[in-house]
């Protein structure tokens, strides 16, 4: 039996991380949580996540800087961005760099689920 897809959740707000992890697990997926982009980059992973949900506004490394680091390293997987401070400039930048979705916080569960399922349905 194939292992369930793994969704990485990168957000500096522990409550958001736990809520998203609970939602992801309720869909039958595995969830790995990280409190920062740097924590994700330093993690020892056997394989890449199937998808990532990342906050944009985080201290030390913003979500869009995390995306830039991943793209520069050749690490490509769907990224769903969420932010409480959506701007057209950030949206354009992350989408041009290959982001899958750009959502404003708070987002309803159905919208997040649709983004995750659509991201997982696309070929790598």
UniProtKB/TrEMBL annotation:
It comes from the Bacteria. SMART domains: REC. Signal peptide: none annotated. The modification 4-aspartylphosphate is found at residue 55. Keywords: Phosphoprotein. Gene3D superfamilies: 3.40.50.2300. GO terms for biological process: phosphorelay signal transduction system. Residues 6-120 form the Response regulatory domain. This is Response regulator. The lineage of its organism: Bacteria, Pseudomonadati, Pseudomonadota, Alphaproteobacteria, Hyphomicrobiales.
